[in-house]
Amino acid sequence: MARKKITLIGGGQIGGIQALMCAQKQLGDVVMLDIPEMEGMVKGKMLDIAESQAVGGYDAKLTGTSDYADIAGSDVVIVTAGLPRKPGMTRDDLLDVNVKIISNVANNVKKYCPDAFCIIVTNPLDSMVYGFKKITGFSKNMVCGMAGVLDTSRFRSFVAMELDVSVEDVAATVLGGHGPTMVPLPRLCTVGGIPLNEVMSQEKIDAIVTRTREAGTEIVKLLGNGSAFFSPAASSLMMAEAYLLDKKSVLTAAAYLEGEYGIDGYYLGVPVVIGAGGVEKIVEVKLTGDEQALLDNSLKAVKTAVVEVDERT
Ligand code: A3D
Known about the structure:
Bound molecules: 3-acetylpyridine adenine dinucleotide
Number of helices: 11
Helix content: 40-55%
Strand order of the largest sheet: 3-2-1-4-5-6
Distance between the termini: 40 Å
CATH class of the largest domain: Alpha Beta
Largest sheet: 6 strands, parallel
């Protein structure tokens, strides 16, 4: 069986870790594309990873490039091209610059790999994935955004840290837009099958919900120059792997909604099934009135950004 081909558009902090993880997981051959000024950097990163393969015991062809012709025929495209946040910035502050970058990327992906499963990571996430779908015209099952896997992973991690238990035993779901209005759902969180509120006080649960909403900003402040990259890389690869291995994984992703959760024509974080068909299904959870109100509020924030994307695309 021929190896799969994974293209990473954007070879910065997240792209570099994604490439290493793709190789280590032996998901396929990897192409990393960046702007011409960064061609040496991406060629260097890919050569560096290639030179680790003998020690790591994995095989993949690794290509660094700025030429879109090299991405032709990719099975998966993951987009991190764009500016990251610096301390004091919101994700929406990135919109002006990143929408231009996403437009350029989308036009090229449309031209060179129209059959790829596309995962957008660039912020502000929910409006960038909307713009990417609008420009490519790809079907909704083949274009999604990575945020919910990361937001959920953060929530699970904080619960596991607080209780000093294995994170593998913590199941959770975080819905909504990728920003401070996201909607962690403690009601659906379990620890080894036990509802969270049986093993943790409401005060501590509330603190974890708040920390999850601000988790990206916490990292931005600590790093001082850029945003999280290990966990976004791992989260986006989990989605790529679900597609490539037809895992039918139940994950939270920014998916295009057409009536689900009472929302029409927007991308928002909801539970989905990802397999060989891409986003094969949107899972509709019955929300309480309060939860639905929080989701509607999160949509409001996304809508504001989408208006700006619509004006620029
Ligand atoms: P960074 O290390 O700056 O890498 C971005 C790369 O994109 C750089 O190498 C740029 O040269 C490259 N680039 C810029 N313009 C283009 C273009 N037109 N074509 C191709 N490549 C281009 O940033 P990063 O890797 O830390 O973050 C990348 C993006 O992911 C940012 O927008 C972040 O805000 C976003 N991000 C999203 C999440 C989510 O959970 C959604 C988490 C963390 C970061």
